[in-house]
Amino acid sequence: MIGALLFIVFIGLMVIGVPVGVALGVAGTLAIAIANVDVQWFGLLAVPQNFYAGIAKYPLLAIPMFVLVGSIFDRSGVARRLVDFATAIVGRGPGMLPLISVAVAMFLGGISGSGPACAAAVGGVMIAAMRRAGYPSPFSASVVAAGAATDILIPPSVAFIIYSVLVPQASVPALFAAGMVPGILAGLALIIPAVWLSRRHGMGALERNLPRPAFWPSLKAASWGLAAPVLILGGMRMGWFTPTEAAVVAVFYGLFVGMVVYRSIKPRDLFVILRESAELSAVILMVVALAGVFAWSLSTLSLIDPITHAIVNSGLGETGVLILLILLLMTVGMFLDGISIFLIFVPLIMPIANVYGWDPVWFGVILTLKVALGQFTPPLAVNLMVSCRIAQVPMESTVRWVVWLLGAMMLVLIAVIMFPQLALWLPQKLGY
């Protein structure tokens, strides 16, 4: 009864519009209070303890740093220079600007690891450029949002950091390596329908009239941005710093590029950058902390074992259970953000994964791919919200274009499920 009350209260609060983090904390606290009604005060002491324990983890220090990196590179002008360089390589023509949008978003994934930050940085440059070239704004917003979704797969990734905290068997370096190949495949899969749709519907008719940047000057201008992923990922691989320390290195590198090299960030801009990053980081970490209370109540009420037992013995078999979990996450991904999905469902489904002996690194990539899909799946699509706001179009106008991009990334998800080595080959090769 108490277990049912836990989920009823959580879902009820969500339905009436209570923020996810608050709903998690209130439902968990209420369940703890009722379960310990005879010693209510002592039972409730677990709430602040688990609130603190939820965020008192070393890998989580990287989250506010990578959020700050995303904000810094958004304002530094790196995205615009990368776009010019990519345009100099691929040239002009129908479908080239959507290709460039996805490619630049993938590259920025190697700097910040934040989908919304990437959508803002790329969308601020590419949506206006595609509008001038004759692309419909809803299509442009869809392509930018989908491209930015690859950021949580291509390292560094905030989603992988949170998953590693929830599943200690999967290390951050192993997850970062495992996400590289699926992330690149996801980007390539998005490029194909983006270019095909552009040419099929006659978009970008004016693109040929736009000037093509010169190669060498654009390479020189973009070199500082091109060096960022090499520094961050190469430094981690060489053992110069941990993923958490890499986030700090990226912050100082971004400030150097923005303030000294490009001089696009002024000292007066620092307060705004720090404030925006602190607000977003606080929201993320508050949800993480309150989800710790919810997860502790699940464990205390012994709800995880009965749920695991019921699913494993449902008669669906290993493949059927995996399909069931994917369908479940696809459904909730339409209404919850990726971080909330991880925090709510990973404690519930990891025991199921352990029963079947699924590799935790591979399973983490599967879950992250699903979260990436959710980032541009209406109605609650954080990347799509950002790009639609920049394009000044309603989200429902993007559906006819988004479905093609969702289908393309879904094929990558199916491929990684059928061929686990797509995710596991690189971490095994690197010895993680």
UniProtKB/TrEMBL annotation:
Species whose genome carries this gene: Orrella dioscoreae
Cellular compartments per GO CC: plasma membrane
Principal location class: membrane
Keyword Transferase appears in the UniProt entry: no
Protein name: TRAP transporter large permease protein
Keyword line: Cell inner membrane, Cell membrane, Membrane, Transmembrane, Transmembrane helix, Transport
TM segment ranges: 55-73, 114-131, 143-166, 172-197, 246-265, 277-299, 319-349, 361-381, 401-426
Subunit structure and binding partners: The complex comprises the extracytoplasmic solute receptor protein and the two transmembrane proteins.
Membrane topology annotation: Multi-pass membrane protein
Keyword Cell inner membrane among UniProt keywords: yes
Domain TRAP C4-dicarboxylate transport system permease DctM subunit: 7-422
Family label: Belongs to the TRAP transporter large permease family.
InterPro entries for this protein: DctM (IPR010656), TRAP_DctM (IPR004681)
Pfam families in UniProt: DctM (PF06808)
Localization per record: Cell inner membrane
Reported function: Part of the tripartite ATP-independent periplasmic (TRAP) transport system.
A GO molecular-function annotation: transmembrane transporter activity
